[in-house]
Protein backbone atom coordinates (compact mmCIF):
# COMPACT_ATOMS: atom_id res chain seq x y z
CA UNK A 1 0.00 0.00 0.00
CA UNK A 2 1.44 3.37 -1.05
CA UNK A 3 1.26 6.02 1.65
CA UNK A 4 1.66 9.79 1.80
CA UNK A 5 2.13 12.58 4.31
CA UNK A 6 -0.93 14.58 5.36
CA UNK A 7 -2.14 16.96 8.05
CA UNK A 8 -5.47 16.10 9.63
CA UNK A 9 -7.46 15.70 12.80
CA UNK A 10 -9.43 13.19 14.84
CA UNK A 11 -10.88 15.65 17.36
CA UNK A 12 -12.19 19.20 16.87
CA UNK A 13 -10.14 21.35 19.23
CA UNK A 14 -9.00 24.95 19.81
CA UNK A 15 -6.07 25.77 17.57
CA UNK A 16 -3.88 26.30 20.65
CA UNK A 17 -4.15 22.56 21.35
CA UNK A 18 -1.22 20.69 19.72
CA UNK A 19 -3.64 17.89 18.74
CA UNK A 20 -5.95 20.25 16.80
CA UNK A 21 -3.94 19.42 13.65
CA UNK A 22 -1.64 16.41 13.41
CA UNK A 23 1.09 15.20 11.08
CA UNK A 24 -0.11 11.88 9.65
CA UNK A 25 0.83 9.08 7.28
CA UNK A 26 -2.21 7.91 5.29
CA UNK A 27 -3.00 5.79 2.25
CA UNK A 28 -2.36 7.45 -1.09
CA UNK A 29 -5.64 7.60 -3.08
CA UNK A 30 -6.22 6.33 -6.62
CA UNK A 31 -8.22 8.23 -9.25
CA UNK A 32 -11.44 6.87 -10.75
CA UNK A 33 -14.00 8.38 -13.14
CA UNK A 34 -13.12 12.01 -13.89
CA UNK A 35 -10.72 12.39 -10.98
CA UNK A 36 -7.21 13.75 -11.22
CA UNK A 37 -4.54 12.68 -8.74
CA UNK A 38 -2.56 15.85 -8.07
CA UNK A 39 0.83 16.10 -6.37
CA UNK A 40 0.31 19.06 -4.08
CA UNK A 41 2.98 21.76 -4.31
CA UNK A 42 1.23 24.54 -2.36
CA UNK A 43 -1.99 25.24 -0.45
CA UNK A 44 -3.58 28.29 1.09
CA UNK A 45 -5.77 28.60 4.17
CA UNK A 46 -9.31 29.99 4.21
CA UNK A 47 -11.80 30.89 6.95
CA UNK A 48 -13.80 27.78 6.01
CA UNK A 49 -10.84 25.65 7.20
CA UNK A 50 -11.02 27.20 10.65
CA UNK A 51 -14.82 26.87 10.80
CA UNK A 52 -14.68 23.17 10.00
CA UNK A 53 -11.87 22.61 12.52
CA UNK A 54 -13.50 24.66 15.29
CA UNK A 55 -14.28 22.88 18.60
CA UNK A 56 -17.27 20.52 18.60
CA UNK A 57 -18.31 17.26 20.24
CA UNK A 58 -17.32 14.92 17.45
CA UNK A 59 -14.54 12.37 17.06
CA UNK A 60 -13.45 10.98 13.68
CA UNK A 61 -12.66 7.27 13.40
CA UNK A 62 -10.46 7.97 10.37
CA UNK A 63 -8.51 11.22 10.03
CA UNK A 64 -10.27 14.24 8.56
CA UNK A 65 -7.97 16.11 6.18
CA UNK A 66 -8.76 19.80 5.72
CA UNK A 67 -7.74 22.23 2.98
CA UNK A 68 -9.32 23.46 -0.25
CA UNK A 69 -7.05 25.79 -2.23
CA UNK A 70 -4.22 24.01 -4.01
CA UNK A 71 -1.71 24.23 -6.83
CA UNK A 72 0.14 21.19 -8.05
CA UNK A 73 1.00 18.74 -10.83
CA UNK A 74 -1.26 16.04 -12.26
CA UNK A 75 0.40 12.64 -11.78
CA UNK A 76 -2.45 10.29 -12.74
CA UNK A 77 -5.92 10.57 -14.28
CA UNK A 78 -9.12 8.57 -13.99
CA UNK A 79 -10.36 6.64 -17.05
CA UNK A 80 -13.02 9.22 -17.94
CA UNK A 81 -10.77 12.33 -17.86
CA UNK A 82 -10.55 14.30 -21.09
CA UNK A 83 -9.07 17.70 -20.23
CA UNK A 84 -5.82 16.96 -18.36
CA UNK A 85 -2.85 14.62 -18.54
CA UNK A 86 0.07 13.74 -16.25
CA UNK A 87 2.53 16.63 -16.01
CA UNK A 88 -0.09 19.39 -16.29
CA UNK A 89 0.26 22.17 -13.74
CA UNK A 90 -3.12 23.02 -12.18
CA UNK A 91 -4.86 25.05 -9.49
CA UNK A 92 -8.28 24.60 -7.89
CA UNK A 93 -10.45 25.00 -4.78
CA UNK A 94 -11.77 21.47 -4.28
CA UNK A 95 -14.97 20.25 -2.66
CA UNK A 96 -16.34 20.33 0.88
CA UNK A 97 -17.57 16.72 0.68
CA UNK A 98 -14.19 15.11 -0.02
CA UNK A 99 -10.87 14.87 1.78
CA UNK A 100 -8.87 18.08 1.60
CA UNK A 101 -5.67 19.32 0.03
CA UNK A 102 -3.41 19.28 3.10
CA UNK A 103 -1.76 16.12 1.78
CA UNK A 104 1.04 15.14 -0.57
CA UNK A 105 -1.47 13.80 -3.13
CA UNK A 106 -5.10 14.78 -3.64
CA UNK A 107 -8.08 13.63 -5.70
CA UNK A 108 -10.17 16.28 -7.47
CA UNK A 109 -12.80 16.21 -10.20
CA UNK A 110 -11.30 17.68 -13.39
CA UNK A 111 -14.43 19.79 -13.97
CA UNK A 112 -13.46 22.14 -11.13
CA UNK A 113 -9.75 22.40 -12.03
CA UNK A 114 -8.02 25.13 -14.02
CA UNK A 115 -4.57 25.44 -15.55
CA UNK A 116 -2.11 27.14 -13.23
CA UNK A 117 -1.15 30.66 -14.34
CA UNK A 118 2.21 30.31 -16.09
CA UNK A 119 3.52 33.57 -14.66
CA UNK A 120 3.03 32.53 -11.01
CA UNK A 121 4.86 30.17 -8.69
CA UNK A 122 2.83 27.33 -7.21
CA UNK A 123 2.64 29.28 -3.93
CA UNK A 124 1.37 32.44 -5.63
CA UNK A 125 -1.18 30.43 -7.61
CA UNK A 126 -2.48 28.58 -4.54
CA UNK A 127 -3.69 31.88 -3.07
CA UNK A 128 -6.25 32.41 -5.83
CA UNK A 129 -8.75 29.61 -6.59
CA UNK A 130 -11.33 29.67 -3.77
CA UNK A 131 -11.44 33.45 -3.51
CA UNK A 132 -11.50 33.97 -7.28
CA UNK A 133 -14.33 31.49 -7.74
CA UNK A 134 -16.30 33.02 -4.86
CA UNK A 135 -15.88 36.59 -6.10
CA UNK A 136 -16.59 35.69 -9.74
CA UNK A 137 -19.67 33.61 -8.95
CA UNK A 138 -20.97 36.30 -6.58
CA UNK A 139 -20.65 39.13 -9.10
CA UNK A 140 -21.68 37.30 -12.29
CA UNK A 141 -23.89 34.39 -11.22
CA UNK A 142 -25.60 35.84 -8.13
CA UNK A 143 -25.63 39.63 -8.69
CA UNK A 144 -25.99 39.22 -12.45
CA UNK A 145 -23.28 41.60 -13.69
CA UNK A 146 -20.71 41.01 -16.42
CA UNK A 147 -17.01 40.92 -15.52
CA UNK A 148 -15.88 41.94 -18.99
CA UNK A 149 -13.65 45.04 -19.06
CA UNK A 150 -15.59 48.26 -18.46
CA UNK A 151 -18.99 46.54 -18.59
CA UNK A 152 -20.37 48.31 -15.49
CA UNK A 153 -19.47 51.97 -15.93
CA UNK A 154 -21.72 54.11 -13.76
CA UNK A 155 -22.65 51.21 -11.44
CA UNK A 156 -21.60 51.33 -7.79
CA UNK A 157 -20.57 48.19 -5.87
CA UNK A 158 -20.00 48.20 -2.11
CA UNK A 159 -17.62 45.41 -1.01
CA UNK A 160 -17.81 44.85 2.75
CA UNK A 161 -14.48 43.39 3.90
CA UNK A 162 -12.39 44.50 0.93
CA UNK A 163 -8.97 43.58 2.32
CA UNK A 164 -9.64 39.92 3.17
CA UNK A 165 -9.07 36.94 0.91
CA UNK A 166 -12.21 37.24 -1.21
CA UNK A 167 -12.22 41.03 -0.98
CA UNK A 168 -8.68 41.23 -2.35
CA UNK A 169 -9.71 39.52 -5.58
CA UNK A 170 -13.26 40.96 -5.75
CA UNK A 171 -11.91 44.53 -5.76
CA UNK A 172 -9.58 43.66 -8.66
CA UNK A 173 -12.32 41.96 -10.70
CA UNK A 174 -14.84 44.74 -10.02
CA UNK A 175 -12.37 47.52 -10.85
CA UNK A 176 -11.46 45.79 -14.13
CA UNK A 177 -15.18 45.45 -14.94
CA UNK A 178 -15.72 49.21 -14.60
CA UNK A 179 -17.64 49.42 -11.32
CA UNK A 180 -17.25 52.36 -9.00
CA UNK A 181 -15.86 50.23 -6.17
CA UNK A 182 -16.44 51.25 -2.56
CA UNK A 183 -14.49 48.95 -0.26
CA UNK A 184 -14.71 48.77 3.51
CA UNK A 185 -11.72 48.50 5.83
CA UNK A 186 -11.10 49.67 9.38
CA UNK A 187 -7.30 49.99 9.72
CA UNK A 188 -4.76 52.13 7.83
CA UNK A 189 -2.99 49.07 6.42
CA UNK A 190 -6.23 47.42 5.24
CA UNK A 191 -7.47 50.70 3.75
CA UNK A 192 -4.22 50.99 1.80
CA UNK A 193 -4.47 47.37 0.63
CA UNK A 194 -8.05 47.84 -0.61
CA UNK A 195 -7.07 50.98 -2.53
CA UNK A 196 -4.04 49.26 -4.10
CA UNK A 197 -6.28 46.42 -5.32
CA UNK A 198 -8.89 48.57 -7.04
CA UNK A 199 -11.20 50.28 -4.54
CA UNK A 200 -12.09 53.81 -5.73
CA UNK A 201 -13.24 54.76 -2.23
CA UNK A 202 -12.78 53.14 1.18
CA UNK A 203 -15.16 53.52 4.12
CA UNK A 204 -15.02 52.10 7.65
CA UNK A 205 -17.36 49.15 8.28
CA UNK A 206 -17.27 49.77 12.03
CA UNK A 207 -19.09 53.08 11.47
CA UNK A 208 -22.52 53.86 9.92
CA UNK A 209 -22.41 53.55 6.13
CA UNK A 210 -24.80 56.31 5.08
CA UNK A 211 -22.86 59.42 6.22
CA UNK A 212 -19.64 58.00 4.80
CA UNK A 213 -21.28 57.32 1.43
CA UNK A 214 -22.86 60.77 1.37
CA UNK A 215 -19.42 62.26 2.05
CA UNK A 216 -18.19 60.78 -1.25
CA UNK A 217 -21.32 61.90 -3.10
CA UNK A 218 -23.41 58.73 -3.05
CA UNK A 219 -27.00 58.54 -1.79
CA UNK A 220 -27.05 54.76 -2.24
CA UNK A 221 -25.19 51.90 -3.93
CA UNK A 222 -26.46 49.75 -6.79
CA UNK A 223 -25.12 46.47 -5.43
CA UNK A 224 -23.47 45.10 -2.29
CA UNK A 225 -21.11 42.15 -1.82
CA UNK A 226 -20.98 41.25 1.87
CA UNK A 227 -17.84 39.36 2.88
CA UNK A 228 -17.99 40.10 6.61
CA UNK A 229 -20.71 39.48 9.24
CA UNK A 230 -24.05 39.52 7.44
CA UNK A 231 -25.78 39.85 10.82
CA UNK A 232 -23.92 42.96 11.89
CA UNK A 233 -24.26 44.79 8.57
CA UNK A 234 -27.78 43.75 7.57
CA UNK A 235 -29.61 46.93 8.58
CA UNK A 236 -26.88 49.14 7.15
CA UNK A 237 -27.01 47.26 3.85
CA UNK A 238 -30.80 47.57 3.70
CA UNK A 239 -30.45 51.29 4.39
CA UNK A 240 -27.96 52.13 1.62
CA UNK A 241 -28.93 49.71 -1.15
CA UNK A 242 -30.62 51.41 -4.11
CA UNK A 243 -34.24 50.66 -5.04
CA UNK A 244 -34.21 47.49 -7.16
CA UNK A 245 -30.63 46.88 -6.09
CA UNK A 246 -28.97 43.56 -5.34
CA UNK A 247 -27.16 42.18 -2.29
CA UNK A 248 -25.05 39.02 -2.15
CA UNK A 249 -23.43 37.59 0.97
CA UNK A 250 -20.98 34.75 1.51
CA UNK A 251 -21.23 34.78 5.33
CA UNK A 252 -23.75 32.60 7.19
CA UNK A 253 -25.93 34.22 9.84
CA UNK A 254 -26.35 33.33 13.49
CA UNK A 255 -29.79 35.00 13.66
CA UNK A 256 -32.81 35.22 11.37
CA UNK A 257 -32.58 38.03 8.81
CA UNK A 258 -35.44 40.50 8.55
CA UNK A 259 -36.06 40.25 4.80
CA UNK A 260 -38.92 42.72 5.13
CA UNK A 261 -36.30 45.49 5.23
CA UNK A 262 -35.75 44.82 1.50
CA UNK A 263 -39.42 44.63 0.48
CA UNK A 264 -40.18 48.31 -0.08
CA UNK A 265 -37.21 48.71 -2.44
CA UNK A 266 -37.79 45.41 -4.31
CA UNK A 267 -34.22 44.41 -3.46
CA UNK A 268 -32.81 41.03 -4.51
CA UNK A 269 -30.81 39.03 -1.93
CA UNK A 270 -28.66 36.02 -2.84
CA UNK A 271 -26.23 33.69 -1.12
CA UNK A 272 -22.96 32.61 -2.69
CA UNK A 273 -21.22 29.37 -1.70
CA UNK A 274 -18.42 28.26 -3.98
CA UNK A 275 -18.91 24.62 -2.93
CA UNK A 276 -22.48 24.37 -4.25
CA UNK A 277 -21.52 23.24 -7.76
CA UNK A 278 -19.09 20.46 -6.75
CA UNK A 279 -21.18 19.34 -3.78
CA UNK A 280 -24.34 18.81 -5.80
CA UNK A 281 -22.60 17.86 -9.07
CA UNK A 282 -24.67 20.49 -10.86
CA UNK A 283 -24.99 20.30 -14.66
CA UNK A 284 -22.88 23.46 -14.94
CA UNK A 285 -20.16 22.21 -12.58
CA UNK A 286 -17.49 22.73 -15.26
CA UNK A 287 -18.12 26.49 -15.11
CA UNK A 288 -15.59 26.50 -12.27
CA UNK A 289 -12.95 25.13 -14.65
CA UNK A 290 -13.84 27.84 -17.15
CA UNK A 291 -13.64 30.59 -14.51
CA UNK A 292 -10.25 29.41 -13.27
CA UNK A 293 -8.88 29.27 -16.81
CA UNK A 294 -10.04 32.84 -17.43
CA UNK A 295 -8.50 33.96 -14.13
CA UNK A 296 -5.23 32.33 -15.23
CA UNK A 297 -5.40 34.17 -18.56
CA UNK A 298 -5.98 37.51 -16.83
CA UNK A 299 -3.15 36.87 -14.35
CA UNK A 300 -0.76 36.01 -17.17
CA UNK A 301 -1.85 39.18 -19.00
CA UNK A 302 -0.98 41.24 -15.90
CA UNK A 303 -4.58 42.27 -15.25
CA UNK A 304 -4.99 40.45 -11.91
CA UNK A 305 -2.33 39.75 -9.32
CA UNK A 306 -1.90 37.14 -6.63
CA UNK A 307 -3.20 38.02 -3.17
CA UNK A 308 -0.56 36.02 -1.27
CA UNK A 309 0.76 38.06 1.66
CA UNK A 310 2.50 35.39 3.74
CA UNK A 311 4.35 32.22 2.70
CA UNK A 312 5.16 29.41 5.15
CA UNK A 313 7.11 26.22 4.45
CA UNK A 314 6.86 23.27 4.79
CA UNK A 315 3.24 22.10 4.80
CA UNK A 316 2.99 20.52 8.24
CA UNK A 317 0.80 20.60 11.34
CA UNK A 318 2.87 23.25 13.10
CA UNK A 319 2.70 25.73 10.22
CA UNK A 320 -0.97 25.03 9.55
CA UNK A 321 -1.75 25.69 13.21
CA UNK A 322 0.08 29.02 12.88
CA UNK A 323 -1.94 29.89 9.78
CA UNK A 324 -5.27 28.93 11.42
CA UNK A 325 -4.43 31.03 14.48
CA UNK A 326 -3.65 34.06 12.33
CA UNK A 327 -6.92 33.68 10.41
CA UNK A 328 -8.88 33.34 13.64
CA UNK A 329 -7.40 36.65 14.85
CA UNK A 330 -9.56 38.39 12.23
CA UNK A 331 -6.69 40.68 11.26
CA UNK A 332 -5.20 38.98 8.22
CA UNK A 333 -4.79 40.77 4.90
CA UNK A 334 -4.87 38.77 1.66
CA UNK A 335 -3.93 35.07 1.81
CA UNK A 336 -1.58 32.85 3.84
CA UNK A 337 0.07 30.17 1.69
CA UNK A 338 2.09 27.06 2.58
CA UNK A 339 4.27 25.06 0.21
CA UNK A 340 6.32 21.88 0.11
CA UNK A 341 6.17 18.69 2.15
Overview of the structural elements:
The protein is an alpha/beta fold. It folds into two domains: 3-128 and 276-339, Alpha-Beta Complex (Quinone Oxidoreductase, Chain A, domain 1); 132-271, NAD(P)-binding Rossmann-like Domain (Rossmann fold), CATH 3.40.50.720. The protein has ten helices and 16 strands. The strands form three sheets. Strands 3, 5, 6, 7, 8, 15 and 16 form a seven-stranded mixed β-sheet that branches. Strands 11-10-9-12-13-14 form a six-stranded parallel β-sheet, sandwiched between helices. Helix 4 links the parallel strand 9 and strand 10. The protein is globular, with a radius of gyration of 20 Å. The model has no long low-confidence stretch (mean pLDDT 97).
Secondary-structure blueprint of this entry?
Blueprint: E1 3-12, E2 22-27, E3 35-45, H1 47-53, E4 56-65, E5 70-77, E6 89-92, E7 105-109, E8 113-115, H2 122-126, H3 129-142, E9 156-160, H4 165-176, E10 180-184, H5 188-196, E11 201-203, H6 209-215, E12 221-226, H7 230-240, E13 241-249, E14 268-271, H8 276-280, H9 287-300, E15 308-312, H10 317-328, E16 335-339
Parallel strand pairs: 9-10, 9-12, 10-11, 12-13, 13-14, 15-16
Antiparallel strand pairs: 1-2, 1-4, 3-5, 3-7, 3-16, 5-6, 6-8
Helix pairs in contact: 3-4, 3-9
Question: Which key terms come to mind for this protein?
Answer:
341 residues, alpha/beta, Quinone Oxidoreductase, Chain A, domain 1, Rossmann fold, seven-stranded mixed β-sheet, six-stranded parallel β-sheet, 10 helices, Zinc-type alcohol dehydrogenase-like protein, Lipid_raft_assoc_Zn_ADH, ER, metal-binding
